[in-house]
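pinging the channel bc i need a second pair of eyes. not urgent but kinda urgent?? the chain im working w is below, pasted from the shared doc
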Amino acid sequence: MGKRLTENLSSTYLGAANSLRPKKARKKIVAYVESYDDISFWRSLLAEYENDKRYFEVMLPSRTTLAKGKKTVLMNQLGKQLGENMIACVDSDYDYLLQGCTQTSRYMIECPYVLQTYAYAIENYHCYAEGLHEVCVAATLNDHKIIDIPAFMKLYSQIAYPLFIWSIWFYRKHNLSEFSLFDFCSYVKIEQINLQHPEVCLNNMGKKINRKLRDLEHRHANALTEIEKMKRELKNLGVYPENTYMFIQGHHILNNVVLKILNPICTMLRKEREQQIYKLALHNIQLQNELTAYERSQVSVDLVIHRNMIYKDSPLYKKIRKDIESFLQILN
């Protein structure tokens, strides 16, 4: 009796162990991404489309070298192998907005086996304005809204928008010696923010931008009609004055705009919480225990923002989902 029970238990455990192994019958679709930082974003997205017939394996473009980046994914021998079993998932950068003005842009737009972010990069999604207050709360455990961050990012975008259009124009003309991406970013960064008057830093940025706009309009007066036409075209692509920050270089938006806002906000929120602890503590031991517990519960803003997933509600993210669904229709 005991031996039979042992055998049954062994069989049960063996069956359970077998069920933990990947299902061999499912179709594997390899999704190549540009870098380590991209793996989590695309895994989270593609996992929503896995079922008992297919699954995705997200990986870097090479198993034999450390080569990374968009060109490695798209333009070498790997790019020629893309198809129903192999797709590429890349940042759009400016290529989506260039609309075929370069070889890379044409390939990304035309190939059904290339998924792109539409936003400049994944960093832009983590900086999605509607989720930035939640980032502050998670980092500080304080739900006090010091400033309206979405309103700040909207105003930032509206101020940056006219110069952004010129930046795209120069890229389409292949004239980066006169006005490069680096040049553009130097005009649309936040120098220092006063939380009591956050509009001041935006006004200062606006003054610099307006001077540059006058210069460009003077030197390229014959391009003004084309610039207005481009505004209408980019609007059809989802670019509006209010959401320009989603299409500006992702590292720039993260490091020179969003973290410039969130770091001082979180510093203030932590001080508020500590002051509350000092005020409410009944004795020194309780004070020290509470301060220690609060300190251990805090998380760095930089870490939290990379976990911000409220971007899933954004219109651009929904465009990626439509592309995935179109790709899956090819498989059926």
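so DSSP finds 16 helices and four strands in the chain. and Residues 250-280 form the longest helix (31 residues). — does that match what u expected or am i reading it wrong
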